[in-house]
Amino acid sequence: MSIFHQLRVKEVRRETVDAVSVAFDVPNELEKEFRFSPGQYITIQKDLQDSLLRRAYSICSSPDSGELRVAIKEVDKGRFSHFANQVLKPGDLLNVAGPEGRFVLETNEKHQKDYLAIAAGSGITPVISMIKAVLQNESKSRFALIYGSKSSDKTIFKKELDSLVASSEGRLKVQYVYSKIISDKALFGRIDGKMVKGLLKSDFSGYNFDTYFLCGPEEMIDDTKKVLLKNGVKEEAIKLELFSATSYKKEVTKSLSGNVEITVVLDDEETTFDMRMDELILDAAIAKGLDAPYSCQGGVCSSCLAKVVEGTALMERNTILDADEIEEGLILTCQAHPTTSTIKIDYDDV
């Protein structure tokens, strides 16, 4: 499970009018705890207005920088994102859990690869960490980025990206896409499969991509992934992470009724209680008073991962686990309903 540590805010830096990056002071004794791979996120916990909030934010610094920094974009009705953008200041203390996440790029100095990332909005956050790591650690590799935002001034890390392009000696290429303004330095519109297909045949025709990283809203990811698969890209070469999900109806709950007996293994302790089938396992565990791990509660991260060791469960949505992992019994408990009269899940065995 996630273990939270109090970290002091080192810097709050304005990146765009509606986004900041936040750097933390990590004490020497916690350096090992906060080592990360490019693409991972940390979970921040904060009491705000008598509510305990947990939010996952991707790390935008590189592992070699010696810095732990995340980017936080202010969103409508986002209580913590508003606090971070308007109130948070250097010297403040926040409870932070160590890095997690499966959307990662592990570098190797022997690699000679081409990488493509397709990001929109704050989806650039984990990607820029990957870009920095590749440029620093893989001298023979190249990185290409298709990056969508509303306009130049709303493009998070634009100055930093342009600086990286200038110093990369041709190893980094960025294609900006703006949806609100027309610019001769960017494509106009929103990133979709048709646009990506065109770029692969034109601007990026000289690349032989090994891995594709998709990060942004669900609609963009679904559309671009379909095009990549149709063009012969193997599914295992595509890694994705949602930064926002479209709304959907909980159709799966219509066929679920009655109570079940659930046993939860957490921190080497077993707790057994009754819950309704139409409840989500994570919600039921939290209501029972268990300190079950979670962050986004939207099926976007993997903090709430657990393994079904007895019985079965059905997830409302899943964009993280592959077929083999599901076959092994892994579930996102924030999305999972029990479907047998008894079920046992293990948070420790993941």
Automatic annotation (TrEMBL):
Residue span(s) of domain 2Fe-2S ferredoxin-type: 260-350
PROSITE patterns: 2FE2S_FER_1, 2FE2S_FER_2, FAD_FR
Keyword match Cell inner membrane: no
Keywords: 2Fe-2S, FAD, Flavoprotein, Iron, Iron-sulfur, Metal-binding, Oxidoreductase
CDD domains, sorted: fer2, PA_degradation_oxidoreductase_like
InterPro entries named among the record's database cross-references: 2Fe-2S_ferredoxin-like_sf (IPR036010), 2Fe-2S_ferredoxin-type (IPR001041), 2Fe2S_fd_BS (IPR006058), Beta-grasp_dom_sf (IPR012675), Cbr1-like_FAD-bd_dom (IPR008333), FAD-bd_FR_type (IPR017927), Flavoprot_Pyr_Nucl_cyt_Rdtase (IPR001709), FNR_nucleotide-bd (IPR039261)
Any single Pfam family the record assigns to this protein: Fer2
Required co-factors: FAD
Domain of life: Bacteria
FAD-binding FR-type domain span: 2-106
UniProt signal peptide: none
Record-given protein name: 2Fe-2S iron-sulfur cluster-binding protein
Organism whose genome encodes this protein: Lutimonas vermicola
Source lineage: Bacteria, Pseudomonadati, Bacteroidota, Flavobacteriia, Flavobacteriales
